[in-house]
Amino acid sequence: MAGYEGKHFKHKLTLILEGVAILCYAINQSPANLIEIVSKFYTKDKQPEDRPSSPLRDEPLNVSVQLLDQENSTCPELEEYSIKTIDDGMSVMAITPYGQIIGVCLNGITRKKDSEELDIHNASEDSCHNKKFCKIIKFLQHIERESNIFAKYTEINKILCVKILSVDCSWRGRGIAKELMDKTREIARREGFGLVRADCTSYYSAKALAKLGFECVYTLQYCDYKEDDEIVFKPDPPHNEIKIYVQEI
Ligand SMILES: CC(C)(COP(=O)(O)OP(=O)(O)OC[C@H]1O[C@@H](n2cnc3c(N)ncnc32)[C@H](O)[C@@H]1OP(=O)(O)O)[C@@H](O)C(=O)NCCC(=O)NCCS
């Protein structure tokens, strides 16, 4: 199949979702140029003008801070965050038999010994020049501290964390996210992770995780997260809260 030469996906090719591919084949649709969008989005060598609109434009926090508000908006910090995650070699993508990428689940490794440092980089106002992205990172750090997952699972030394989950909009509501998560769980089992974790900013990703039997261990309503007495994120309903879901493997 064409289009898999991208160096960041080279380890992931063996993880192609057979089940999803069959499902997509049965549905028999072909989202135009999707493989280009995803491969360009996750390739750091591309010039900004070559990058198409991001598949993460409608993630609730991104929408709320208008991170990628224009058709051709980009966020190099988000791309760097995504690429860093892909480099862990645990990510999966859903593709059709025609080679179209219709969903990605970017999974990163979090080890207990690193957890105090937080693997989220570019966190401080000084080091992150993109103020919108910085708001999101600060929020993720806040819930990391508040949820304190390693303290709840003292026997567990490494967690497979879902950092980015995205399905092309023309394929949503057909179980692709659930398939990606199921495959992620399989990888976690094979690679000896004690726990899979996903911080669900979207009502729909939370629903997918709950359906797969994940346990919700932390919830924060967006209206309860404030800076200088101002609510920071106001996504449209039904995205009212962030939920952390985990499953022991
Ligand atoms: C969140 C997202 C990945 C879900 O992908 P998906 O493939 O549509 O998810 P699934 O088909 O597995 O659906 C999960 C559940 O949400 C429901 N759902 C998904 N999209 C829906 C929609 N637009 N309206 C109503 N229900 C929806 C599904 O019906 C399913 O519920 P069910 O099991 O009760 O039927 C996708 O909406 C997306 O990419 N959103 C933008 C990026 C984002 O928000 N990522 C998540 C950040 S944590």
TrEMBL record:
Gene3D superfamilies from the UniProt entry: 3.40.630.30
SUPFAM superfamilies (alphabetical): Acyl-CoA N-acyltransferases (Nat) (SSF55729)
Start and end residues of each N-acetyltransferase domain: 90-238
Pathway connected to this protein: Aromatic compound metabolism; melatonin biosynthesis; melatonin from serotonin: step 1/2
PROSITE patterns reported in the protein's UniProt record: GNAT
CDD domains named in the record: NAT_SF
UniProt GO molecular function: aralkylamine N-acetyltransferase activity
Name the UniProt record assigns to this protein: aralkylamine N-acetyltransferase
Protein source organism: Popillia japonica
